[in-house]
Amino acid sequence: MFHSWSIARRLFVANLLFVLVLTAVFGAFSVVEARDRAYDNAGGRMLSLATSIANNPLVLEAAGTADPSSVLQPYARDVMEDADADFITIMAPDRTRWTHPRSEELGKPYIGTIEPALRGEIFTEVTAGTLGPSVRTIAPVKDTDGTVKALVAAGVTVRTVDTDVAERLGVIGGIALVVLTFGSFASWLLGRYLRSVTRGWGPEQLAQLFAYYESVLHSVREGVILIDTHGKAVMYNDQAAELLGLEPSDADRSPDAAPKLSELPFDGSLRALFESGRPAHDEIHLTGSRILVVNQAPAVGPVPERSRQKPAVYGTVATIRDRTEIESLGTELQTMKTLSDALRAQTHEHANRLHMIVSLLELGRTPQALEFATKDLELSQQLTDDMVASVDEPVMSALVMGKAAEAHERGVELVVRTSGSSGVRGLEIQDLVTILGNLLDNAIDAAAGGEFPRQVELSVEAGPAAVEFLVKDSGRGIDPDSIDDVLQYGFSTKSAEGNPRGAHGRGVGLALVRQAVQRLDGTMTISNPGGAQFHVVLPAPVPEEEKA
Q1: Taking the model in full, what pTM does it have?
Q2: Which three-class secondary structure state does DSSP give residue 174?
Q3: Same domain, 147 and 23
Q4: Are 140 and 213 found together in one domain?
């Protein structure tokens, strides 16, 4: 049953027991201290009383008479009433009582210690006499020579002292009750707070939950990062560390040791999202080498019961997915679609030309048919020969030829100029497709929407130190104020209307180009010399034989 208790209940019971024990200890200590103090006060009062009586000349004079009791007994009774003492016994040095509260005890020996008093000392003791246990002080009565002529014993019974203590116990009990009440109330308030914070779970359940949480955090394939209200990354899993380029996080690390967002290597848009704490749903953010899909939501605490207060917000939780491969495959698919469309257009055009040649042959105009076929073959082979002869990269040649066919289909002339020999061969195919394919797509779209003559120029220069791509179109160009914006993911100046690709891919291409160029340590500049011009410079790749 104990293991099923919540932390709040355990703390309440423990604190209540502590208050009870503390109250009991405090009460016992107070009782003992009050009793000791009462006995000390009684002893001090009897000491003053016995000393005063012993110093009274009447006592010394009566001690020398034949019947001291006749003088001293009335005197002792008067003093007992005035001093609130239970008994005053004046006796001879041989213990014979001269005074006593009970007349029948006169002449009988005194019960108690008198030896120190016979030596001239004054002392106090607790002992039992004819009236029961009492606190008494014995003082000697001396003559001018210092001889002890009589003894005076003044005292109060223990019952009287205990009565005084009992009167104080009411105050002590009241204080203990107040302490117990306030302690219990404080325990209840603390338990209520803990119940709201821990949601009524016990420590074993919380330990199990933390084990689940840590296991889930490090086993999910998505990156997870927890950010508190002070802008600290208090926790992130291994996948998030890999995607964001962070050092692995220790699950047991103190929140005070967590790094701030300003200390982590985040890119601009991603840093702005994390610092803002705003909700986000499937937002795309580009880092140096990755395309990330980010979801972000606030970490909200439990809603207080029967309270109009808003639940506490402890920070934000962001999940991160890697979309780099998906975008890369999408780009490659779009390129393949472009090539497929180009092949379909060439097939249609080739069929028309074949019909033309067959018709000329049927009409008996063989020389004209031969001349038409020869010129058509020369025009078709020219671009391929130029690309293959200048740049030894068949993938780029195929890409450019496909884009040339697409441009021709849309009424745009693609002019290709190449120089160099083998500087392109070491570049990754995916990077070539991403950079050149997206630049040509944007240029063809811009030229197709512009005035005649519609033209796109592509210059490829592959040197020993760098590879340069220059793509220029005859379109309207780019607004100088928007040059930085066009490189951001999701920003586009195109509309879906009139675009053969529709709305797909808008605001993505140039962002992917920028990412690829940065990953390859290259540079890209944008200008408007009569149209948009993109100049990309990439370091020449190291040949495989030199790497080996």
Answers
A1: 0.47
A2: helix
A3: yes
A4: no
